[in-house]
Amino acid sequence: MRIRYRTMAAGAALAIAGGGMLGIAAPASASGAAPAFSCDTWHYQRGTDGHGASITCHGSPFVGYAICHRPDGLTYAASGNLARSGGTSTTWCDRDAEVVDAGAFPLPLP
To answer: What is the 3-state secondary structure (H, E, C) of 46-110?
Structure first.
Protein backbone atom coordinates (compact mmCIF):
# COMPACT_ATOMS: atom_id res chain seq x y z
CA MET A 1 0.00 0.00 0.00
CA ARG A 2 2.79 2.44 0.87
CA ILE A 3 4.59 1.86 -2.45
CA ARG A 4 1.41 2.60 -4.41
CA TYR A 5 0.85 5.81 -2.39
CA ARG A 6 4.45 6.98 -2.93
CA THR A 7 4.21 6.22 -6.65
CA MET A 8 1.00 8.22 -6.95
CA ALA A 9 2.47 11.08 -4.92
CA ALA A 10 5.61 11.13 -7.07
CA GLY A 11 3.50 11.09 -10.25
CA ALA A 12 1.38 13.98 -8.98
CA ALA A 13 4.50 15.97 -8.07
CA LEU A 14 5.94 15.41 -11.56
CA ALA A 15 2.66 16.46 -13.17
CA ILE A 16 2.56 19.67 -11.12
CA ALA A 17 6.22 20.40 -11.85
CA GLY A 18 5.71 19.69 -15.53
CA GLY A 19 2.72 22.00 -15.64
CA GLY A 20 4.74 24.69 -13.90
CA MET A 21 7.49 24.37 -16.50
CA LEU A 22 4.97 24.80 -19.27
CA GLY A 23 3.70 27.93 -17.56
CA ILE A 24 7.23 29.33 -17.43
CA ALA A 25 7.94 28.48 -21.08
CA ALA A 26 4.74 30.00 -22.43
CA PRO A 27 5.87 33.66 -22.50
CA ALA A 28 8.66 32.78 -24.95
CA SER A 29 6.03 32.19 -27.60
CA ALA A 30 4.16 35.40 -26.81
CA SER A 31 3.71 38.14 -29.40
CA GLY A 32 6.60 40.15 -27.93
CA ALA A 33 9.15 37.55 -29.06
CA ALA A 34 11.82 38.49 -31.57
CA PRO A 35 10.93 37.82 -35.21
CA ALA A 36 12.21 34.60 -36.73
CA PHE A 37 15.21 34.76 -39.06
CA SER A 38 14.45 33.42 -42.53
CA CYS A 39 16.04 33.64 -45.96
CA ASP A 40 14.87 33.31 -49.53
CA THR A 41 16.62 30.82 -51.82
CA TRP A 42 20.09 32.04 -52.83
CA HIS A 43 20.69 33.08 -56.45
CA TYR A 44 23.74 32.26 -58.56
CA GLN A 45 25.49 35.37 -59.90
CA ARG A 46 27.79 35.65 -62.93
CA GLY A 47 30.09 38.62 -63.29
CA THR A 48 33.02 39.66 -65.44
CA ASP A 49 35.43 38.73 -62.64
CA GLY A 50 33.89 35.46 -61.48
CA HIS A 51 30.85 33.82 -59.96
CA GLY A 52 29.02 34.52 -56.74
CA ALA A 53 25.76 34.24 -54.86
CA SER A 54 23.19 36.66 -53.52
CA ILE A 55 20.67 36.05 -50.75
CA THR A 56 17.85 38.07 -49.16
CA CYS A 57 16.91 37.49 -45.51
CA HIS A 58 14.36 38.83 -43.02
CA GLY A 59 14.21 39.19 -39.23
CA SER A 60 17.75 40.34 -38.41
CA PRO A 61 20.82 41.99 -39.96
CA PHE A 62 22.95 39.33 -41.64
CA VAL A 63 26.06 38.50 -43.65
CA GLY A 64 25.83 36.24 -46.68
CA TYR A 65 28.41 33.55 -47.43
CA ALA A 66 29.32 31.28 -50.33
CA ILE A 67 31.19 27.99 -50.43
CA CYS A 68 33.47 28.24 -53.46
CA HIS A 69 35.32 25.50 -55.37
CA ARG A 70 38.34 26.27 -57.56
CA PRO A 71 39.46 24.11 -60.52
CA ASP A 72 42.63 23.11 -58.61
CA GLY A 73 40.40 21.36 -56.02
CA LEU A 74 40.52 23.97 -53.24
CA THR A 75 37.19 24.60 -51.51
CA TYR A 76 36.82 27.70 -49.34
CA ALA A 77 34.25 30.04 -47.82
CA ALA A 78 33.82 33.68 -48.81
CA SER A 79 31.72 36.25 -46.98
CA GLY A 80 29.56 38.96 -48.45
CA ASN A 81 28.44 42.39 -47.38
CA LEU A 82 26.52 43.18 -44.19
CA ALA A 83 22.83 43.70 -44.99
CA ARG A 84 19.82 44.86 -43.01
CA SER A 85 16.69 42.77 -42.61
CA GLY A 86 14.96 42.62 -45.99
CA GLY A 87 18.19 43.50 -47.80
CA THR A 88 20.44 41.44 -50.06
CA SER A 89 24.00 40.30 -49.40
CA THR A 90 26.17 39.36 -52.39
CA THR A 91 29.28 37.21 -52.12
CA TRP A 92 31.89 36.73 -54.86
CA CYS A 93 34.26 33.81 -55.35
CA ASP A 94 37.72 34.00 -56.96
CA ARG A 95 38.00 34.10 -60.74
CA ASP A 96 37.28 30.64 -62.23
CA ALA A 97 35.78 29.37 -58.94
CA GLU A 98 32.23 28.04 -58.80
CA VAL A 99 29.66 28.47 -56.01
CA VAL A 100 28.87 25.10 -54.42
CA ASP A 101 26.53 26.36 -51.69
CA ALA A 102 25.48 29.66 -50.10
CA GLY A 103 23.60 30.96 -47.09
CA ALA A 104 23.59 33.64 -44.40
CA PHE A 105 24.58 34.16 -40.78
CA PRO A 106 22.19 36.27 -38.68
CA LEU A 107 23.72 38.98 -36.52
CA PRO A 108 22.35 39.98 -33.11
CA LEU A 109 20.10 43.00 -32.98
CA PRO A 110 21.64 45.99 -31.17
So the answer is: EECCEEEEEEEEECCCEEEEEEEECCCCCEEEEEEEEECCCCEEEEECCCCCEEEEEEEEECCCC
CA 110, CA 106: separation in Å to the nearest integer?
12
> pTM higher than 0.85 for the full model?
no
The DSSP annotation for 88-100 comes to: EEEEEPPTT-EEE
pLDDT tens, position by position, 23-64: 334 444 445 666 799 999 999 999 888 899 999 999 999 999
Q: Is the dihedral of CA 39, 40, 46, 47 positive or negative?
A: negative
